[in-house]
């Protein structure tokens, strides 16, 4: 789940931005959760309570706790360097004040859907480059494996089997929870299977064939969604969007 925040005192802008984010996220096959605040005080209050974000669109010209104050709180008080901050403003004169906050971008109103899409893609790409390992627990130890080495996951009752090019590992877990931690290369094709598209050698209407010859079925509820995801994924590869 990609957690996105919007903080602006213009309710109409927030509504339009939220709608565009959900639409673009759907296009990119990304599960997004958008939270909206209309004042700096309200977002600061929720951050104090433990709210976590991957990306926030933050208006600079808020009345009391402005966007710069909120940005400094995220970076300095929370010591959070991972939340991507995208400042939005009707002015272009804040460059030096924003330098230490290290925003991902600065957008001048009105904001186009193309700008939003570009920001989302860049944010996700950067997050995925950092989140290039999958972690699982086995016994009392935690193991890490590069996601690029994972071919597919199989659910067997309460156990998960992880298959790589070099072998298999088993651990306890839930496939649905695992899916939320994986980058865009992965797809859930069945309640029992998650595949890495990089390891698929053949697609069909109701199955995929993996690099090692294993054939995994695509269950009926997933078939239409999978076809659309494959089309979008291939298009993104061609244009270098993911």
Distinctive features:
single chain; 242 residues; alpha/beta; five-stranded parallel β-sheet; five-stranded antiparallel β-sheet
Describe this structure in words.
This protein is of the alpha/beta class and 242 residues long. It contains seven helices and 15 strands. The protein has helices at 11-27, 40-48, 67-77, 95-98, 113-130, 175-179, 223-239, and strands spanning 2-7, 32-37, 55-59, 84-89, 105-108, 133-138, 141-146, 150-156, 159-164, 168-172, 186-190, 193-196, 200-203, 207-210, 215-217. The strands form four sheets. A five-stranded parallel β-sheet has the order 2-1-3-4-5, with helices on both faces. A five-stranded antiparallel β-sheet has the order 10-9-8-12-11. Strand 13 and strand 14 form a beta hairpin. Helix 1 crosses helix 5 and helix 2 (40-48) runs parallel beside helix 3 (67-77). The longest helix has 18 residues, at 113-130.
Uncertain runs with pLDDT below 50, 5 residues or more?
236-242
Give the number of DSSP strands: 15
The spatial strand order of the largest sheet comes to 2-1-3-4-5
| Content of β-strand | 25-35%
User: How far do the termini sit from each other?
Assistant: 17 Å
The major pleated sheet works out as: 5 strands, parallel
Rg, Cα atoms, Å: 20 Å
Order of helices and strands: EHEHEHEHEHEEEEEHEEEEEH
Question: Mean pLDDT, as a whole number?
Answer: 87
How many DSSP helices? 7
Secondary structure: helix percent: 25-40%
Global structural class: alpha/beta
- Global outline: elongated
């Amino acid at each position: 789940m990609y957690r996105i925040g919007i903080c602006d005192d213009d309710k109409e802008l927030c509504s339009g931005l939220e709608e565009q984010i959900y639409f673009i996220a759907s296009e990119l096959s990304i599960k997004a959760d958008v939270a909206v605040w209309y004042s700096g005080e309200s977002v600061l209050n929720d951050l104090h309570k433990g709210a976590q974000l991957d990306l926030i669109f933050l208006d600079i010209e808020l009345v009391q706790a402005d966007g710069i104050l909120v940005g400094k709180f995220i970076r300095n008080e929370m010591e959070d360097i991972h939340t991507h901050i995208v400042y939005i403003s009707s002015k272009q004169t804040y460059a030096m004040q924003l330098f230490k906050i290290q925003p991902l971008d600065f957008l001048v109103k009105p904001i186009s859907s193309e700008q939003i899409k570009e920001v989302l893609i860049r944010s996700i790409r950067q997050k995925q480059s950092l989140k290039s390992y999958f972690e699982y627990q086995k016994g009392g130890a935690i193991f890490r494996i590069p996601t690029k080495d994972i071919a597919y996951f199989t659910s067997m009752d309460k156990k998960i089997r992880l298959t790589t090019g070099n072998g298999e590992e088993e651990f306890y877990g839930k496939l649905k929870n695992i899916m939320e931690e994986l980058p865009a290369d992965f797809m859930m094709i069945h309640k029992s299977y998650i595949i890495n598209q990089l390891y698929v050698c053949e697609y069909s209407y109701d199955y995929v064939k993996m690099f090692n010859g294993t054939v995994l079925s695509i269950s009926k509820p997933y078939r239409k969604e999978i076809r659309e995801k494959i089309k979008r994924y291939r298009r993104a590869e061609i244009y270098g969007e993911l």
